[in-house]
Every structure is written in structure tokens, then in C-alpha cells.
Amino acid sequence: MKLYTKTGDKGKTSLVGGRVDKDHLRVEAYGTLDEVNSFVGWAMTLLQDEPFQDIYQELQKIQHELFDCGGDLAIVGEKIPYKVKAEMVTFLEERIDAYIQEAPPLERFILPGGSPQAAALHLARTVTRRAERCIVSLMKEEKINEIVLQYVNRLSDYFFAVARVVNARLGVKDVEYERSAIVFREKEEK
Hints:
By secondary structure, the protein is mostly helical. The protein has five helices and four strands.
């Protein structure tokens, strides 16, 4: 098998159900998810040590799910079952809730960074936000699996929560935005 096909030499690419220009909104959306996946892979290389095995395993699962998201976005008009399901969103929500409990209380906005591992996760988070914007633009023009948008929205929150936990497990403080007022408060019990 050859790696190159030459079928894209005129600026077109194949989707499930047709061909489009390489700068089509669908291609931009799933291409940006591919960028996210690359950043996840890089973060995983930094999270192979013992205190992060749970996170490493979750990131490996997420890499496969990102491929599922991209696959669903590449379907045009075909009657193929989508791969991204609501349970995938629920899993992310459960993990976010657990990580929020593990991390120190959050009061102010924080800057990306702290440790190299957390910085890598923040990169994945910001590219995920860009992917989300691309998906929203696509949704305005064409029908997609809307659960992909929900998944990507939760995924950016997941990366934020995990980055904070990684810093906490390493004993590295999050870098607070200096000019931030206290913007996050624990809900007061009545």
C-alpha cells in the first residue's frame, strides 16, 4: 500500500458520502480534532509515571473516541450509525466531577502551566475549544451528530480538570491570573 494516493492533489478530499474541498467546514472540524489527538498523545508521553496511570488510561480511551468523533463528522448524507454516544459524554462528566474533588479549591482564573504535564493538557484543552468552534460553524450549515459537540465541550472541561489534578499530584501550584478577582466560590449551604 502506498501512503500517498494523489487523489487530493487538486484540493479535494473524500468523506463518507462524497468529496469536498480540503478547506470545507467538515474537514476543518475533524482536522482540528486530529490536532487535539496529537496533543493528547504528547501529553501521554509525559504522564507515563505511576501517579498518573489512571489519567494515562483515560487519555488512551479518549484518543480512540476522538477518532470516533472525526469519523462521525466525516459522514455526509449516508445512513451509517454514528459512533459517538451519550454514554461517552457521561463518562467525561463523571471523571470531571471526581477530579474537581481531588484538586485544590478553585477561586480565581488560572493560567495554563504549572508543570510540563499540565501545560500539555492545557494545550489539548485550547485546541479542543477551537475544534468546538469549528463544529458549531459546521452545525449551522449541515447536519451532524450533535453528541459530538457535547463530547468536545465536555472534553475541554476534562482537560482543564485533569491539568489541575496533575499539578496537585506533583505538588505544583496552579498559576493564578494575578488580576483575577475571586470568581469561583463553593456553593454556600442554606
